[in-house]
Amino acid sequence: MEGDIASMGQFLGAGLAAVGTGLAALGVGNVAATYLAGALRNPSAAASQTATLFIGLAFAEALGIFSFLIALLLMFAA
Amino acid sequence: MTHVATETTQLLAQATDATPDVMAIPDGTVVTEGGDVVHSAAAPYDAAADAGGLSFYPLDQFIVRPIFGPGGVFDPASPVPEIHWYTPTNVTLWLALAVLSITLLFVVGSRGRATIPSRTQSIGELFYGFTYKMVEDICGKEGLRYFPYVMTLFMFILFANFLGLLPMSFATTSHIAVTGVLGFGVFAGITVLGFVLNGPKFLKLFWMTEAPLMLRPIIAVIELISYFVRPVSHSVRLAGNITAGHAVMKVFATFGAIAVVSPVSVLAITAIYGLEVLVCAIQAYVFAILTCVYLKDALHPAH
Q: Which residue ranges run through the membrane (chain B) (predicted)?
């Protein structure tokens, strides 16, 4: 094992940032699950709400992408 | 190994002697007996390669290279030369191919303007109808004036995403330089449009009249921040999704080098590729639909 404390911090930080993408996955799953639950209760209203579903998915996913970006920046740009 | 370690320690000791007030390993570079760098902060994955494991270079596929000459697309082993604004690079090539395919689909494919459309023309009509309905549903009738802009963005991103999925091709939309221009273009255009159409009333977008008076300034600050984060999230979402998908495929491709797991790896790549096709379409759709949502704010700023 060679290296220095700065590299260690870099890798630890990247790993911690990767946890954020997992948490965003929970958010995305929640959006999809809630949509499906609502759509099965009232299928006639489901089709009109797909645009809202994708907007919700996009917003939830963007935050996960941000933490992925932080991980990439730490790994390759720090 | 002990010898190498001793050698390294000596080198480090010399470095420390020479500059006593600097950290022993300023940039994490470790040099072996032979003088080759086994680990440096600039290329962290070299350490893994040295340990006898796999070498992962999942992000090397996003390097912008000139098409011709040394260090170009056909000579990836050499270092990338300096790139000027007029250098034709792989980004230029694949962006041009995206524009070319859209032109082929809409200009050449629909040239006949037949009442009973040919196969190519029906694909074009499908895209047109889909985007038209999307703009109409979200922005209303008056939003249809800006339909060509949304359509252009949607088709361009869709084709750039799909062309990036071809093996050995280059994913142009994985670069924030590309998506940033699109995202900030939407932001700038819609902000200007909002002020042109509504004048100072456009600022009502940030002033929630439904909220209690005490809370309104706080909400206005939050709304203002979220307004200025829009172009960043708009462009980073697209670039991040494409980068992440392509990097994941590359990582699984590297696992294919181990004989035991290579069948699983090939299956996994196939599955992820299918997912990526979906992601490419969804991200283009999301980019277009968010443009529509922002456009609606410019057309009707009062909530």
A: 91-109, 146-170, 176-199, 211-229, 249-270, 277-296
Inter-CA distances, B74 with A26, A49, A55, B60, B296, Å: 42, 48, 41, 14, 46
Q: How far is CA B290 from CA A59, A76, B126, in A?
A: 10, 30, 20
Position of tokens 């999301």?
B286
User: Does residue B238 lie within any of the structural domains?
Assistant: yes
B41 in reach of chain A (CB within 8 A): yes
Please indicate, yes or no, if residue B53 is contained in any of the structural domains.
no
Which structural domain range is residue B283 located in?
80-299
CATH architecture of A16-77: Up-down Bundle (1.20)
Q: Is A53 on the interface with B (CB under 8 A)?
A: no
Q: Write the residue in B25, B38, B237 that is nearest to A61 by C-beta.
A: B237
Whether B14 maps to a domain, the answer reads: no
Assess if residue B130 is contained within a domain: yes
B/e letters for B11-49, b = 16+ CB within 10 Å, e = fewer, are: eeeebeeeeeeeeebeebbbbeeeeeebbbbeebbbbee
Inform me whether the C-beta atom of residue A77 falls under 8 Å from chain B C-beta atoms: no
Q: Does A18 touch chain B (CB under 8 A)?
A: no
Domain ranges of chain A: 16-77
Residues in A touching B23 (Cβ below 8 Å) = 4
Q: What is the pLDDT along chain B (303 residues), one digit of tens a residue?
A: 344 444 444 444 444 444 443 333 444 444 444 444 444 444 444 444 444 566 778 888 898 989 888 888 888 888 888 888 888 999 999 999 999 999 999 998 888 778 888 888 999 999 999 999 999 999 999 999 999 999 999 999 999 999 999 988 999 999 999 999 999 999 999 999 999 999 988 988 888 888 888 899 999 999 999 999 999 999 999 999 999 899 989 888 888 888 888 999 999 999 999 999 999 999 999 999 999 999 999 998 875
Give chain B's domain count: 1
